[in-house]
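Q: I'm writing up a methods section and want to include an example of the input and output format. Could you take the sequence below and give the corresponding predicted structure tokens, formatted cleanly so I can copy it straight into the document?
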Amino acid sequence: MTYFVRIVLIIIGILSAGLGLRGFLIPNHFIDGGVTGTSMFVSQISGIRLSILILLINTPFVIVGWRQIGKIFSIRSAVAIVGLAITVFVIPYPEITHDKLLAAVFGGFFLGAGIGLAIRGGAVLDGTEVLALLVSRKTGLTVGDFIFAFNVVLFSVAAFFLGIEPALYSMLTYFSASKTIDFLIHGIEEYSGVIIVSPKSQEIRQAIVDILERGVTVFAGSSGKHQYAREILYCVVTRYEIPKIKDTVKAIDENAFMTIHNISDTSGGIIRSPLSPVLQAVDLHEEMEHSIAPNIDISISPDRIKDED
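A: Here is the clean output for your methods example:
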């Protein structure tokens, strides 16, 4: 991804997040989760400008990110957060609707789209993810578990100060935003790992490599009961290619054993992305030096006999 494309994605993300905040959430007194939601909550109960709180509350996380994650990532994030604060303060977004349901759903959608696009540009608009990553490294909590726990506390406090109904609508905002973020980061080009066990592994391997033009790794394994030698095929495809893989395997061996699991991130190999180069995912995990691809245990022998990737 070029430097220009990263900047464009971050700018669009800032404008989208600003629309979600000023056009939907702030006029209806809703909040979101994370640091952004905390800033909105404090702004409502204290009267301090939201733009100032976005800067103040996010600053410690940017500093921590500088020390623990990387300078480039932190600089991008700092610029993006400052841009969001300026956007919220300067741009006169219209108040789109006062219908509470529409405001919660679409406010969350535009805010989530903004955060997701900024992440694809190599930055964050909310410091919660930085804090969650650091906590997950030092504790047994996953990033998702920490963010969930953080937001449970936030919405519980919001229910006490703002009322039950605004807190419930705010939870709906959070769910809308989080689903939009997940889709932009993972859903568009979601990858799946496919494990295939069949006596006709050679024919299946050849079909995947030659016809589908996908890479295949072949492991040497054995059956658990009778210890029959088996070749175990493993390949990574996009979700759009799963039906092709299934049809190809079934055409060769109807009784082939297949398992399919989701993969959060990939790097290298022969993988076809359904996106144009403009929307290729940013390798934030590489900058963070933190891999999130799942470990796979399929109880095979340690000898890897073929690798077509």
